[in-house]
Amino acid sequence: MELRQLEYLVAVADEANFTRAAERVHVSQSGVSAQIRALERELGATLLDRSSRVVVPTQAGRAALEHARIALAAAGRLRDAVDDVNAVVRGHVRVGTVTACKLPGFYEGLDVFHHLYPGVGMSLVEAPSDELVARVRRGELDVALAGVPDGFDARGLQSHVVLRERLVAGVVPRDPLAGGAITLAELAERSLVTLPAGAGVRAVLDGEFARVGTAGSVAFEAGAPDTVVELAARGLGVAVVSESMLDTSPSRQLEPVRIVDAETEALLVLVWRPGAPAVRHMVGQLATGLIPVETS
Fold first, then answer.
1. What is the model's pTM?
2. Does one domain contain both 101 and 247?
3. Is 285 found in the same domain as 154?
């Protein structure tokens, strides 16, 4: 039994597809399939159900996956411990970020890291915040910049709060609410434009509506905050974003409206799992480029 066989098994189970798994581990599809077949022969059990286009673990496969993940994590920790002793920074750091991130310090941190550690590979993906946090938990990403509600479950992760702010509504200047205030119940009666499910701002908004026993009417969703503001500026609804999203929008065509009974703040955080020296150095560079608020 080899670690690479366990890595391939986990990749296929996570991706539910041999082609995507092969791309993830940078091995040919036939190579991945052959190694998993060899593992199955050694264990005397079929680990993956290949009867449909979506590959799923069998009962034996689910049992094997639990231990495969533990073994791979232990091997990674062993390598990291040796690297710590030898002061070695190597490997590949997988970074995730919210869609349409506009924080220059984030990209500056990536640039500085690249020049300080040219031998360390980097990759970057954009995704909804809930997916980013989940992928860090699963070990698919090493560090991510994500939007979360205040008080989010950070168990098993380390976090660094970059930004903490309240939700705000944005309306066109001719709207009677421009520059004023609104309650959540009143906001729920308006046609809303905001970020989609999975975004930190949306999680805060949905949670606040649930807290006061109402549900908003979201007419338009957009992954990029600037698009949310642009749609609202065209009179298609009331934008609900964080304060900075409204302040930094290029259009600057909306007037802020304070949501008087909103309690939960929206956070922008770096999240990561304790691990390799390269990850710690990446977190350090990103945190340096961004505004530090608090670390846990």
1. 0.70
2. no
3. yes
